[in-house]
Design goal:
single chain; FAD/NAD(P)-binding domain; 2 domains; five-stranded parallel beta sheet; 9 helices
Length: 401
């Protein structure tokens, strides 16, 4: 029997760990139940940290962990899924494509930044969506030091006032001063079509964010969108033109395109609709988790968000349940009632909230300490020690806060 997991993000990593854990508990051997993880690299990109400087350092190796728990790593990109034949076609970096059969499949292919067809966006826009994107932005920012301080060199426009946009924008002043010198007159502007910053954060948390933006001098342009980009800067839908050498696009996510090959219903973000055990209804043997799935967290109408917090726990349940079906044991309904947010606010500290109503619990330096611990400890892979790694993937305990 073979369980195949596509993707090595947070959901994929925990799907592999959890499936191996259940295999171990049931006394099955790696020959009885082969678990294979497919991804271009055996590396976890710590995506929530890509807004930081030195993004090339925010990765974690997975090969030692996978070897410790007897999970086979298959290097390559999954290109085609045939759910009737139960096969995945894989394109390796070199050599011919190969076909891998599966008895159960867990789709954890993540998400991609939504880039609309705005004039000049592809040519002049940057992002912190992927490791390559973040490295390109970092290289661009360092290159600003070689330019004269005119024509918006020291101005950065961030398109998108959600979590990613706010964290990118509030980190930029520090990053630019490190590059351009402590006396650089940096200017950062967040542009968002909504009439309020951080629309999902609610009335309780928003004043904290607004005060943080004022404290570090980040401007906002609300109720307006980006109409066009060119070499001179960005033109907004309001008609305002902002001279800038740097536009960071952080407005909207979509599930990775591979989910479109699963013959099932999807939501407006391209996520596969799954049942409470994270199985795709009507498609035998296929589970989905992380940003690839729209899953109910509870019975109160709350659904998992595109976040590593939800991806890790969803991955643990999906991996457990896929293995459970093959091993002939009951599956476990996914649930995630605890929900917190910890938003980095640059030099103004951070904001920590709890619950779907986002009740503010910590602000400023105290919240910043928690944010650093989350970013540097909590979300990293477990050590490559078999017992510890397997114990970390109990689906009932993953990401309990």
């Amino acid at each position: 029997m073979r369980l195949v997991i596509i993707g090595a993000g947070f959901a994929g990593m925990y799907a592999a760990l959890s499936a191996a854990r259940l295999r171990d508990i049931r006394g099955a051997s790696p020959q009885d139940l082969q678990i294979a993880l497919v991804s271009p690299e055996p590396t976890l990109v710590v995506r929530p940290r890509l807004y930081e400087s030195k993004p090339e350092t925010v990765t974690a190796p997975l090969l030692d962990v996978l070897e410790a728990i007897d999970v086979d790593y298959i290097q390559g990109s999954a290109e085609t899924i045939n759910t009737e034949a139960r096969t995945v076609q894989i394109a390796p970096a070199k050599g011919p494509r190969k076909t891998l059969s599966y008895d159960r499949l867990v789709v954890t292919t993540g998400s991609r930044l939504f880039r609309p067809n705005i004039p000049g966006l592809a040519e002049h826009g940057f992002s912190v969506d992927s490791l390559d994107d973040a490295v390109a932005l970092d290289k661009h920012l360092h290159g600003l030091a070689e330019r004269p301080a005119v024509n918006g060199r020291d101005t950065v426009v961030v398109a998108g006032g959600g979590f990613t946009g706010i964290e990118a924008a509030t980190e930029i002043p520090t990053r630019l001063r490190e590059i351009l010198g402590p006396n650089a007159r940096t200017r950062v502007v967040i542009v968002d079509r909504n009439t309020a910053i951080a629309p999902d954060m609610g009335a309780g948390a928003r004043p904290v964010i607004e005060e943080a933006l004022r404290k570090i001098g980040v401007e906002t342009r609300l109720g307006a969108g980006v109409a066009a980009l060119d070499e001179s800067g960005v033109t907004l839908s309001s008609g305002e033109h902002i001279e800038t050498a740097t536009v960071i696009w952080a407005a909207g996510m979509r599930a990775a395109p591979l989910t479109g090959q699963i013959p099932a219903e999807r939501d407006n973000f391209g996520r596969l609709l799954v049942d409470r055990c994270l199985q795709v209804p009507g498609v035998q043997g296929v589970f989905a988790a992380g940003d690839a799935a729209r899953a109910a967290c509870d019975d109160e109408g709350n659904y998992a968000l595109m976040s590593c917090q939800h991806a890790t726990r969803m991955g643990a349940f999906a991996g457990n349940n896929a293995a459970a079906e093959l091993l002939g044991v009951p599956t476990k309904p996914y649930h995630q009632k605890a929900y917190v947010t910890c938003l980095d606010l640059g030099e103004a500290g951070a904001l920590f909230t709890r619950g779907w109503e986002r009740k503010v619990e910590l602000v400023g330096d105290v919240a910043k300490k928690t944010k650093r611990e989350i970013n540097t400890v909590w979300i990293y892979p477990p050590k490559a020690e078999r017992a510890l790694a397997l114990a970390s993937a109990d689906p009932e305990r993953v990401t309990e806060v």
